[in-house]
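FW: tagging you since you asked about this chain on Friday. Here's the raw sequence from the shared folder, copied in full. Didn't touch anything.
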Amino acid sequence: MPQPDQVASLAAPTAADPRRWKALGVLALIQFMLSLDITVVNIALPQMQRDLGFSSTGLAWVVNAYVLMAGGLLLLGGRTADFLGRRKIFLIGVGLFAVASAACGAATDQQLLVGARFVQGSGEALAAPAALGLIAVMFTDPTERMKALGLAGGITALGGVFGTVIGGIIVDLASWRWAFFINLPIAAVALILVPRLVSESRMQGRQRPNPTGAIIGTVGLIAVVDGLLAAATHPWGSWQVILPLLGGMALLGLMVAVEARSRSPLIPLDFFANRSRVVANFVTLFLAAAFISYFFLLTLYEQQVLGYSPLQGGLSYLTFGVGMIAGIGIGALVMPRVGVKPVLATGFFGCAVGLWLISDLTTHSTYWHDIAPGMFILAFFAGIAFPALNNAALHRVTGEDSSLASGVQISMQQIGGAIGLSCLVTLALRHAASQAVHGIPASIASTHGYDLAWRIGAVLCIIGGVLVMLMLERVSGELRIADPLADIEPAVQ
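HL: got it, structure written out here
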């Protein structure tokens, strides 16, 4: 029998769900947790390296295993949520993420930890696009939807920021294992409350998604990243680099061929008809590459070069949190008035300035004079950029494609972060190794490598800002989703 709230939705499909703001709080909490996990782990990386014996390139897999699975399977997760039910897939994803978090915390060697991180990423691939899809469907008023999506995007970004502080406290007072165990109570809250606050929704009239393309593409991305990381310790022309790179690119080409011939592709061709969505998702690659690499390398610099404890390293990111909050507030205030395009371009160019300021560190740099100014500027403009990216990436999507569009955006963030981290870490390590050959001390050589990586990140942000200025349509601050409930089939329980 239909539940009372579902009967109401059948009778008056345009009526706003009175539970929507409470539901937004729970869904945003999970988005916060998923983002939190990446940066909590970053602070714990040096301790993991000591306890489990990771090499520098092996350590990158602790991050990349997660983001590659999340990014590679997000489109399939979004499509599956649209087809089978967004609430159902969200709950399955959160449950999988929680089980994998427990396995990460209990891991006794490198292989177990990295393997569990792959499973964690799969959980995000199901939960994250379903959550944003539910938000887009629950908020039928365009102005409310803009605020809800902006809040969700901002809270997700804050999870990445405060994960460093929380991670520092946990690692310093307990151990790196609790960086994973902390996810369990948050997941439990969502598993209990979401069924009570969110009605089921799904699309109708399309075929079941085919997982083949997503699986092939994910394996291809893993191979490409493996080749890029291998280049840190092997010549570019060695088989350890060439074979995975060529194999990965071949698999990515095969994925395109499979999707082109599929009757139910993960991304229908008409999705690319909206230029704003395409540009927004493409430039996300540049911002994510710079953003995730910044956290990874700065953590290593602070703890291994400057000798910060995990708690000191975590607390050092409080400046980032303050800047991010300020940026989100200013962006939310300005975006409805001037539109997405100028806000987004400003965010990219400001991030470039912040990265460039921090790219002149030495082994004797101090926090307030050398690290904090660039950190604040990067955080402030990232806070402006991320909600604008969310709005542009979901511009004019239909209700039935809301999870797909969300999945594409998050996928670009994860894939950009994984490939960017692999490239920039490899370049940093190779640059440091070349200097060490000439007798430069390891700490100085490593710092020079980190500086080079941050300068490249700044250039990526400049490229992204230029592309936004030249190619993004002028999108009003009001996100428009056409007929959001017209094609949503309420579940009958």
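FW: The mean pLDDT is 82.
HL: agreed, and The domain at 12-197+266-480 is CATH 1.20.1250.20 (Growth Hormone; Chain: A;).
FW: great, closing this out.
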